[in-house]
Amino acid sequence: MSAYLDTRVSLYAERLWRDEALDALVGMEDEAATDTLSRRGLPQLASGYDSLAARPDFRSLEQRIIAQILDETRVLIRPLSGDARAFLTFWTARFEMSNVKTLLRSKMTGERPAAVLARLTPMGAFGRLDNQDLAHAEDVGELLRRLEAGPYAGIVRHARRAFEQTHDPFNLDAALDHGYYEGLIQRARPLEEKVGTPFRSLMANLIDRINLVWLLRYRFNYGLPPAQVYYLLVGSRYGLASSRLQELAALDSLEAVLAALPAPWKAVLSGTSDIPGVFARMEQAAADQALRVLRSRASGIARAFAYLILRERDLRAVRAVLRGRHLGLPATDIRHALQRGAAEAM
Amino acid sequence: MLRAEPLLRIQLLMLASEAQDAALALARFGVFNPAPCTLDALGDSPATAYREAWLEAEARLSKVREQCGDSGPLQLPDDAEAPALADLEELNAWLKSVWSACLECHENEARIADARTHLDALEDTLAKLERLNVDLAHLLRADSLLAVSIGSLPASGLGRLTEALAMTRHLVSRFDQAGEQVFAVIAGPRVRHEEVRGLLAQAGWRELPVPDALRIHPQAARAWLDAERSRLEAQSGAACQVMDGLRDRFGPRLHEARLRLALARPLAEAASAGMRGQGGLAALSGWVPKRQLASLRAALDGRFHGRYWLDVREPSPREVAEVPSLVRYPAWLRPFVPLVKSYGIPRYGEFDPALPFALTWLLLFGAMFGDVGHGAVILLLSAALLRRLGRMAWVGIAAGAVSMGFGVLYGSVFGYEDLIEPLWLSPLHDPIRVLTLAVTFGVGFIALTLLANAYNKGVAGRAGEALFDSGGLAGLAFYLGAVGVLASLAGAMDVARPAAMLAGAGLAGVAAFKWFEARAGLGERILVTLIETLETAISLFSNTLSFMRVAAFSLNHVALALAVFTLANGLDAAGHGLTIVLGNIVIIVLEGGIVAIQALRLMYYEGFSRFFSADGREFAPLRLASPQAKV
């Protein structure tokens, strides 16, 4: 089984995009772009790209990208069982959490069920929610109660209580995100013990990035008090442990937070002065680490997770190129938007 | 032989205002399978709004029915008309108001239950504070330097909240837990209390309001708690009365709503298939059986008196893959149909394998599990479970009967080989003959599947594949010729020369076909032709050998019984009897299950995979009720 997964991941790794390939996609003719996408294992995007040219439908492009990721995840989890399978399956659940948020917003705005159903991401074999039933809930309260009777009860119960106190959509979204990542860490823990450092390094990069970006955003964009900011972060045992997050949340400026980070982080983030910059640098560092794990002799599940992280980043870059092309943006602007670095130099 | 009924493609043009009645008439007609409309001149989707309204109303109705109960069986009058869009939207709005009222009752009940839990927690808190001799009035004083709050939150968030509150010099003390909810006291400097307000809301903190009465005297507190409980009881009773009132008030109209939604279903369903329209016109497309066209015209004339236009045509060769299959199976065969459909649906015009499947599966099962006693147990058990298993029980009954029949032929009763004389042969005493028979059966079975495949390919207009492919007549010629050569070599017959010529001709035909089909360079073409021709020979040979398992399992059945007897003979009388009974149960459950699966496997992989594309579409007619609903 592990030989199968290793081979499968290695074959998939060939599909990752180098900088030059993305660069070439920016300037290609439409027909050549369609052909390139098909050859690189993205037939869903290739056909989508055809229709994109005739009828702009960005959301459906997004849905096709997620469908591609789900397809590949389905193949990768085939030989897995137990904790590894549960982890990768839950990794896909963030798309379903996004559907939950879309459904909740639709109830807040009174959108008709048919309209919101068309916007939901089809989850295929990974779908655990009855979207038809949920879309026909009368209001947010009924929707939350229905969700509470489903597979994400643990996450939603907390979110409902938070929402009931204030009726603030921010509280609802923040509680859902928090619940999801707490669940992911919980599922990663047994694998970290079994698989060891490579897998743990991927999780550490992911959770530390999320915590730092959330901390900066909640503290300095939304102006929340330190204690509330700390509460909203994900309980972590990685690079930014709880005690460090408490200290950082208590600081008064973005510069002070960046200055108080551990030395390796300062090196990664040197020269950044805004939150999107911090996110981009940390994502780049995470991609570099994922690439190292992918190229290493780490266990199949660590390499599969690394591949999925890189693949998703790739597909977002491809989406940016396709959107840019469709909107007729200059090639230099599209290339600037990509902001990719060392990770792509495979 | 069973075949799908010939179907016709129809396009029904009508006034858009009568679309719902046209769909209703087609649903009453019973054999109209809607399909996407291909009239490009009609650019709108006139029934989309209708379908949306129907879906919303249907969802609301089903939720209301869960609360208010069923309103009894539904009788649809023959002359009832389907509601128009405006009526449907009005009905939807009414159902929304009914469901909102029900939802409010629900929310009230949940709030009352929550308040009860909190009251219990408050009483518990008071009891604990009483024992500690704490002056509650002093503790909860609004002008105190210390801000104290009593309340509850989800248990999972307690640890995180404690850490976060520590950052603002607040303390959390948990004193009780009910389910996933913990009750706690939070205390901290009043000057920083505002700072934690957002945090507490985020954590789902629900404060227990402690009334002044509770801060003064324990007896006053008790009196207040009792009064609160009575108030909640009264509220609960009122909520029940409201719900009962809703049932009484809405019951009759809900029945009417069910009726109207059932009448609206056909157009809503047809809309999902793809209905088109423009201006005041609407068009419905789909498939109907050829032999019922006249009765369809009569039904439409009776309802619309010529206010429609019906275009009818045969399916074109290009759209054969889109045509649904409507096969009418005899009642005795229907229990086996789900087993065929679990593999796939036959394409329109294809050979339907349900009948040969049923006969061959039973034959294989009986041959591998031939025993009068075991067959009788399966038969009786299936008959006893008829009500629970439904139609599938008949598969068990038939399998049991065939097993009994083969038991008589083999002379086997509960594994005893000496109670009755075999009418035909005993597998244990004549294993070579059993093996030969199994392989011979396999040859006949594979030859039939090749014939069926050639027929299917011919019907689909792929004459080249029907004649020359490895699964067509050339493959069959090679296969029968090769079998003839092998049989002659084994001395079973003397047809070596003509058989070799037949096999050679067949193989040459297959090779020539592969050569012409391969679109590649010369080297690759030679390679493809060689490998694919070789693969044809190997797969036919190995598939035939697969049928040796029929003999192996019939021997295995006897061998298992022998093992049980050997064990039993080493025990005393009681042990002997018990071992025989338990051994037979194991044989029936374990081996019976394995044999059933093996027979199914032979049918699917050695049979269906050879001729059955299984990618057809099932005929799904418009109906007045959903397949699950009881009308």
In short:
Chain A is mainly α and 346 residues long. Chain A is built from 19 helices and no strands. The two termini of chain A are 26 Å apart.
Quickly list its features.
heterodimer; A: 346 residues; mainly alpha; B: 631 residues; alpha+beta; Alpha-Beta Plaits; 3 domains; four-stranded antiparallel sheet; 21 helices; extended
Low-confidence runs of chain B: none
Helix content of chain B: 55-70%
Largest interface, C-beta within 8 A: A-B, 36 and 36 residues
Number of helices of chain B: 21
Described by the principal axes of the CA atoms, the overall outline of chain A is globular
| Beta-strand segment tally of chain A | 0
**What's the domain count of chain B?**
3
What does this 3D model show about the protein?
The complex is a heterodimer of chains A (346) and B (631). Chain A has 346 residues and is an all-alpha fold. Helices cover 76% and strands 0% of the residues of chain A. Chain A has 19 helices and no strands. In chain A, helix 10 runs antiparallel to helix 11 (169-195) and helix 13 (226-232) packs antiparallel against helix 14. The model of chain A is unreliable at 50-57 and 341-346 (pLDDT under 50). Chain B is of the alpha+beta class and 631 residues long. Chain B folds into three domains: 1-38 and 275-328, Alpha-Beta Plaits (2-Layer Sandwich); 123-230, Alpha-Beta Plaits, CATH 3.30.70.2750; 331-615, no CATH class. Helices cover 62% and strands 10% of the residues of chain B. Chain B contains 21 helices and eleven strands. Chain B has helices at residues 19-29, 48-68, 85-131, 136-139, 158-166, 193-202, 212-216, 218-274, 293-304, 337-341, 354-368, 372-384, 386-389, 393-410, 431-459, 463-468, 473-489, 496-517, 522-546, 548-569, 573-611; strands at 7-15, 33-35, 146-154, 171-178, 181-189, 206-207, 276-278, 281-289, 308-313, 324-325, 617-618. The mean pLDDT of chain B is 87. The A-B interface holds A 112-114, 132-133, 136, 138-139, 141-142, 154, 157-158, 160-162, 164-166, 168, 171, 174-175, 224-228, 230-232, 235, 242, 246, 249-250 and B 48, 51-52, 55-56, 59-60, 96, 99-100, 103, 107, 153-154, 156-157, 159-161, 163-165, 167-168, 180, 195-196, 198-206.
